[in-house]
From TrEMBL:
<dbReference type="InterPro" id="IPR019734">
    <property type="entry name" value="TPR_rpt"/>
</dbReference>
<dbReference type="Pfam" id="PF13431">
    <property type="entry name" value="TPR_17"/>
</dbReference>
<feature type="signal peptide">
    <location>
        <begin position="1"/>
        <end position="28"/>
    </location>
</feature>
<keyword id="KW-0802">TPR repeat</keyword>
<keyword id="KW-0677">Repeat</keyword>
<dbReference type="InterPro" id="IPR011990">
    <property type="entry name" value="TPR-like_helical_dom_sf"/>
</dbReference>
<dbReference type="InterPro" id="IPR013360">
    <property type="entry name" value="Pilus_4_PilW"/>
</dbReference>
<dbReference type="InterPro" id="IPR050498">
    <property type="entry name" value="Ycf3"/>
</dbReference>
<dbReference type="Pfam" id="PF13414">
    <property type="entry name" value="TPR_11"/>
</dbReference>
<feature type="repeat" description="TPR">
    <location>
        <begin position="51"/>
        <end position="84"/>
    </location>
</feature>
<keyword id="KW-0732">Signal</keyword>
<feature type="repeat" description="TPR">
    <location>
        <begin position="155"/>
        <end position="188"/>
    </location>
</feature>
<protein>
    <submittedName>
        <fullName>Photosystem I assembly protein Ycf3</fullName>
    </submittedName>
</protein>
<feature type="repeat" description="TPR">
    <location>
        <begin position="85"/>
        <end position="118"/>
    </location>
</feature>
Length: 269
């Protein structure tokens, strides 16, 4: 499987109606240094280097979905260097994926006590709070991430904020955040999908069509995006495009839930 196809298969996990994890959006944690961002790897003492190696291993296991192994590695990193903020950030991500918000919050708060300027930790903490339904606190955390010095993850944070706002019943605010994410990263399939879905749910299919077509005309299209594109084009009365998308869905993803819904004519699923 190519990297592009693997990404296409995975990104659909993040939708407005089903946003149980934001691992792809959260990304691997960046190593922190307890407020000393000017320290380079060559300056690190042996203790920190050993802990960083463990965190890098844990990140790899986390990305592969091996959460228990990742947790074991990050616990060893913390034993080696209990002042390493990145280890607590990753531990928070792992506990978020394990659906343990109490331990996740403890981990993120400890990471922020060690390095309050780390935008990646604020982003990940914000997503955990969103999953826990604490929307006001989540929005504050996302704002802190965006305000963090030298933070390079603005696009993913605007995306996460938009998804969270949609879950909180704030569609207009969600649209603004998702549009900002699109401006910063116009090729992100998760942003394209969520913009198309949000606009479709609001009945603005003419605008939803732009984002759905941009996604479905790329190699990152998947069963969810094709099904959404079908519903948008059907509502707009574009029969030829509906037929083309239906053929793609049947041919490329015959065993998908969306292909089954198409065969049943279950357009409201």
């Amino acid at each position: 499987m190519t990297r592009a196809r693997a990404r296409a298969a995975a990104w659909g996990l993040l939708v407005l109606a089903l946003a149980s994890t934001l691992a792809g959006c959260a990304g691997a944690p960046r190593p922190g240094t307890a407020g000393q961002d000017w320290i380079t790897e060559s300056d690190e003492p042996p203790q920190r280097k050993r802990a960083r190696t463990r965190v890098e291993l844990a990140s790899g296991y986390f990305e592969q979905g091996q959460l228990t192994v990742a947790l074991d590695e990050v616990k060893q990193a913390i034993q080696i260097d209990p002042t390493y903020a990145a280890a607590f950030n990753l531990r928070g991500l792992i506990y978020t994926a394990l659906r343990d918000p109490r331990l996740a919050e403890d981990s993120f708060q400890q990471a922020l006590r060690l390095n309050a300027r780390d935008g990646n930790t604020w982003h990940n903490y914000g997503w955990m709070l969103c999953q826990d339904g604490r929307y006001a606190a989540a929005f504050d955390a996302f704002a802190r991430a965006l305000d963090a010095p030298a933070y390079q993850g603005a696009a993913r944070t605007w995306l996460a904020r938009g998804v969270c706002q949609a879950r909180a019943g704030q569609p207009l605010e969600a649209e603004r955040s998702l549009l900002r994410a699109f401006e910063l990263d116009p090729g992100n399939p998760v942003t394209l999908f969520n913009l198309a879905l949000l606009l479709h749910q609001r009945g603005d299919d003419a605008r939803a069509q732009f984002y759905a077509r941009r996604l479905n005309n790329s190699e990152l299209a998947n069963a969810e995006s094709l099904w959404l594109g079908l519903k948008i084009e059907r509502r707009l009365g574009n029969k030829d495009t509906v037929a083309q998308l239906a053929e793609q869905l049947r041919r490329r993803f015959p065993a998908s839930r969306e292909a089954g819904a198409l065969e049943r004519g279950a357009w409201d699923e």
